[in-house]
Amino acid sequence: MIVELGHFALVLAALVACIQMIVPMVGAARRWPGWMAVAVPAATAQFVLVAASFAALTYAFVTSDFSLRLVVLNSHTAKPMLYKVSGVWGNHEGSMLLWVLILALFGACAAWFGANLKPSLKARVLAVQASISVAFYAFILATSNPFTRLATPPMNGEDLNPLLQDPGLAFHPPFLYLGYVGLSMAFSFAVAALIEGRVDAAWGRWVRPWTLAAWIFLTIGIGLGSWWAYYELGWGGFWFWDPVENASFMPWLLAAALLHSAIVVEKREALKSWTILLAIMAFGFSLIGTFLVRSGVITSVHAFANDPERGVFILFILAVFMGGALTLFAARAGAMQAKGVFAMISRESALVANNVLLAVSAFVVFVGTIWPLLAELAFGRKLSVGAPFFDAAFTPFIVALTAILPIGAMLPWKRGNLTRTMQPLWGVLALSLAGGALVWVMQTGGSMLAPVGFTLATWVTLGALTDLWSRTGRGGLSGRVRRLRNLPGADWGKTIAHIGLAVTVFGISGLTAWESEDIRVAQIGERFGHAGYEIELRDVLRVPGPNYVATLATMAVWRDGKEVAVLHPEKRVYPVAQMPTTEAGIDNGILRDVYLVIGDPQEGGGYAVRTYIKPFANWIWAGCIIMGLGGIASLSDRRYRVAAGARKRATGVTGVPAE
Amino acid sequence: MKRLILALALLAAWPVFAVTPSEVLDNPALEARARDISKGLRCLVCRNENIDESNAELARDLRVLVRERLVAGDTNEEVVDYVVNRYGEYVLLKPTAQGANLILWIAGPAMLLLAGGMGLAYVRRRGRAEDGTEAGLTREEEARLEDILRE
């Protein structure tokens, strides 16, 4: 009964979305306030209905209702409660329901917190947002209904894919979706502005918090996925340039570009049409990501649903929204007159360079991702594009981006002077280069990756701190410290986020350049050395888990004759899904992780054992968290909270404008 | 990230384990070269996974093959050519820069030139707008100027 109510609520939500799509749009065109006002209650109602529908599906999973096809395919009574809940979105149908839930949530948030938006713009934004919802409701109801019942329910389910039964992965999809779908808000704002025919500083200020929120979620979501891969896949890889990872990385790059270009719109009323285009493309890449994942066109295990019908449907949605938005853009973009005037050496120009680099790097990832498909269709060549290509083609962009970042971040608006801006940065640059040289000397041989990574990370970090400090003006130390505390959130956010990027860059280059590995057969009781550590295999036991059987090893890590850690790497076999997984034993540290993996018993006795020393691994995800915190600091800036009213009073903040 | 799912699912019956101790060559220099080559070769039955990380049986065969060729005295290029001759360019994770693949390799730099050029043109246009029309202050700026002057 509850399941049927959920199904019914979903259909109702689709109908409400239809109303929300049409009525406010007509109202805004005809200037009928009553019709425009429909958008707000409709957005609320739509959200409540989808939430009810999602709750009903969750209920079915929690109570293991095996009359539901989806529950049978993805759940089992023995599964822990956390994974019963995360099983709701650990499959195609449920994840699409989560998608529309978040879509409706963002729409409702815009309705609730957009009280200061111009009524016609607000009506149009919510109508465009609803039109995306309508497309996805149609997709769910026509091709992927999660509420399909079975005529003869089985006694038990087939269990969730064991690799997905993990806390990191339980929360990875919701964060990623909050990011993907959050970009729909930027899209809706862009399309609404094109319909209105007006983009001004206030528009930039409205669209930025939404983009920022989406970007924060994407950052955390991608970070979670990478962290999961690191500890779960059994050899400590953190990024594979898999098509599905790329699908989340491209929107992230474009969202980062959009964040920066929206600042130019907000502060200087320039780069308007480019920002609109970027907002459209960022969401477009979210849709492309969905298409890649859901259609299985580009083979990847992420594609749980290799279903051509679904792929064609999403491609159709993509074509309608991108085609429509880009046509509108072509027709209207000419009317967006830039106001701000700026010189070649200026913050504006630096942000243009930032956008060029970010957008082109996203393009490179895109071409690499679809090239196997294109090459096969157009040239009949079956080939692969893997990590070595992306490492070679993408890395230069990050190097260039981080190299210009501290200078661009400190250039003044309108017209700058390179000599003056560089003045406080020369010391930082010298220090970074010296540090890089030191790293190069200390590592005997090896690649340039670590020295370059270290130099750039130091350069960006110290540059960001110099920038922050320079904002406190002149005068005594105490006065400057006091002013430092009173700097706007956006200033702090900028500094923190840039430092986060530096930390991640350093983590990746340090780990890649310096990790070491040892593979051997170890007997129980044997002690062996690797990279200054001694590892002892103490014991191996077979232990039953809630829904798996584990081979659990006890291994001690020694350093300089002292026991540093006792780790328990595991190998699990899930009998229902007939699948083994590895759980690495990791001793986390700031400077290094010791990463142990237990393998199969060997014929001559003993076990295959892998030992990795992973230097600075945790910096990669720490950097993601710091970037996210920077985003939150920026979001907390009161100028965005009072954003909408800011059109008339953009002043009132002392000092140099942030970012 | 979840590429291993299929590989693992296929191999539940024969649990093997990426590079196993028995495969490792005694000569550390040769082994290092083998690892290096393995990272650029795709496991044919897996999804976007190199043979060094893969748990599949076929990947193991390829790893052994690579090591055999190395022990026989082949250079790295000869080993890769040998594998490509047998399995086609599909095994290469880093596509060659030949024929149509040039598009793939040139796309990034070409786009960078194009976008950089457009960006530069835009920036110069914004710079020149100042010289030509000397845009006056906006209303907001005028109001602000008035505020400042009044103080």
Which keywords apply here?
heterodimer; A: about 650 residues; alpha+beta; six-stranded antiparallel beta sheet; four-stranded antiparallel beta sheet; 21 helices; B: about 150 residues; mainly alpha; Helicase, Ruva Protein, domain 3; 2 domains; about 60% helix; elongated; disordered N terminus
What is this entry, summarized?
Chain B: Possible subunit of a heme lyase. The complex is a heterodimer of chains A (659) and B (151). Chain A is of the alpha+beta class.
Shape, per Cα inertia axes of chain B? elongated
What is the CATH-assigned architecture of the largest domain in chain B?
Answer: Orthogonal Bundle
Rounded to the nearest angstrom, the distance between the terminal CA atoms of chain B is 61 Å
Order of helices and strands of chain B: HHHHHH
Gap from first CA to last CA of chain A: 54 Å
CATH fold name of the largest domain in chain B: Helicase, Ruva Protein, domain 3
| Helix content percent band of chain B | 55-70%
Give the CA-based shape of chain A.
globular
* Biggest chain-to-chain interface with counts: A-B, 71 and 57 residues
Percent strand of chain B: under 5%
Main sheet of chain A?
6 strands, antiparallel
Task: Compute the number of helices of chain B.
Answer: 6
**Number of E-state strands of chain A:** 10
Query: Helices and strands of chain A: which structural class?
Result: alpha+beta
Strand tally of chain B: 0
User: What is the mean predicted local confidence, pLDDT of chain B?
Assistant: 78
CATH class of the largest domain in chain B: Mainly Alpha
Uncertain runs of chain A are 300-305, 643-659
Low-confidence stretches of chain B at least 5 residues in length (pLDDT < 50)?
A: 1-16, 131-135
